[in-house]
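Researcher: Batch entry, complex prediction.
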Amino acid sequence: MGPGPSDVPRRVLDASARQTIGHLDPFFITLMDEIKVMLQQAYKTDNALTMPVSAPGSSGMETCFVNLVEPGETVLVCINGVFGGRMQENAERCGATAIVIEDDWGAPVSLEKVEQALNEHPQISLVAFVHAETSTGASSDAQQITRLAHQHDAMVIVDAVTSLAGSPLEVDGWDIDAIYSGSQKCLSCLPGLSPVSFNERALEKIRNRKSKVQSWFMDLNLIMGYWGSDGARSYHHTAPVNSLYALHESLLMLHEEGLENSWARHQKNHLLLKSGLAEMGIKFLVDEAYRLPQLNTVYIPEGVDDAAVRRNLLENYQLEIGAGLGALAGKVWRIGLMGYASREENVELCLRALKESI
Amino acid sequence: MGPGPSDVPRRVLDASARQTIGHLDPFFITLMDEIKVMLQQAYKTDNALTMPVSAPGSSGMETCFVNLVEPGETVLVCINGVFGGRMQENAERCGATAIVIEDDWGAPVSLEKVEQALNEHPQISLVAFVHAETSTGASSDAQQITRLAHQHDAMVIVDAVTSLAGSPLEVDGWDIDAIYSGSQKCLSCLPGLSPVSFNERALEKIRNRKSKVQSWFMDLNLIMGYWGSDGARSYHHTAPVNSLYALHESLLMLHEEGLENSWARHQKNHLLLKSGLAEMGIKFLVDEAYRLPQLNTVYIPEGVDDAAVRRNLLENYQLEIGAGLGALAGKVWRIGLMGYASREENVELCLRALKESI
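Model: Structure tokens for the complex:
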């Protein structure tokens, strides 16, 4: 119950242990097609270019930046936690100028600041922000930020690492241009894959780039051929076949449950945890309106030894919860209720373990 | 028995299906340390920076280039198959000028051409070549190319995707500066990881770069902190925990067998295959002196339907062999005897299946 990787169900683990087959085997091609369709459902999109990057979430982030940013462009980066800072790094390494707006850790991205920055810097071509900050548990209004960006002729890159399958997210409904996530959060798959999706506006920009994408491994012009969005199957790299077996199975489980039911389950178990924590006098970092059900960041009670409690949970309850990052280190815990870990019995175990450890 | 991914033993598959734990769990840190030590043994090196990149072999290649090449440098790229061409792409995307020498597909890299290029272009800072070309089955003399490069004050990047654990390779003995491989060839691990190793000369260059590494995900300055070569463990990305369980197990199996014994087994089964193919009048593409035991590229006999035979092997013998790439498409088959697949019973199955299918 940390901030991810989340608990992986046995069904997904078993799927990953099926015999490895060649990445050009006809059966594997079918598997790729099914993954694509189920990812489109999870993202609520019809985007043809919807597929998992063969590496962790941070490479999904980089895939978005290296493809959509050209040297000399200006990118607005919204920072309200660790991962916004990483977006700034990515933008700058692509040769862009990053304009940064900052909000407090635990607060959402401020729409006013976004609008002001877009007004002040009409050259901004891209707005990058985190939908669900894993470092704080705060959700930002992806739909409204995207609307503002489009009003100013800018595209968006959205970090949905922690939101996908855990809380409402609609790629087409909100008109998101480029988005990435991770396999190891609310999908409860193994860590190591990064599902991404790009709309036609984003693809148009990528096809018309003046410069080559600086990364060969992440160049979508090459990967598109591999994942067959143009009907062909040209060899790009050796796919992580077994991780894709696992992703297929976790997407199948999500499909069986239903996406909206998964969101509702995350919300229900969050409320259960919240009520138990309230009884213990433990308070949340994030205002109720922006609180992520899948990542509960709470203040460590006065006088309690952070590391000792977490060690006790791990050793005596086999329970991992996350520490605070950056300025929040030693001040908060991050309790994940992600994917398969979002279950009533887990909430009860966590509450009991905390009660007995504090 | 294709050119990889190779057969994965059940022991490795089962290891990969162990319950996912957090990438900051103390147990996982121990696992990382053991992987590092066993990779050092497999590469025959004491290099502190020896670890698996969390993505397929092509990202290991890119990790070497983005870290060791700065814009404006001149790189000598030796092309004798598909993967040399990819190295050229990588060098150019890093802003370098690539000087290319070419040899026939199936031939090794010519030492004379390397020396001539180094003499003609004293500004060359790096020589990049493939030790074992997966697209042709030819081995090049990594020790001598490295010696020539060092004589001209250039470093080397070596592609050992297909050679690691399958045929003689000595990183320290041959004084190789930077090397990458894949998990899915002679290690018989799942596809998706790329073991790399860098010597002190390479690290010195990386530490003293004038420009930032263009990739955040592959920046070794950040990854070194994560893999703890400086004693610390700073969070970089979420490790592909289950794939690392698998790599740990496959390295353990290699350790149990002994590296030199693994090389000898690959050679023994290659000779067995060679003798059976000779009886059928099937000839090798590569001269005996440069033939890789783990990847046997043979001419398709006159009048035989390439695709029909491969389909028959797959459907009736559950046996995959590789097709030819590029100019060799339709002309050769590539029979892999890699890692766990390099077994006497496999050689026999392959020979029988070919005899019955042709």
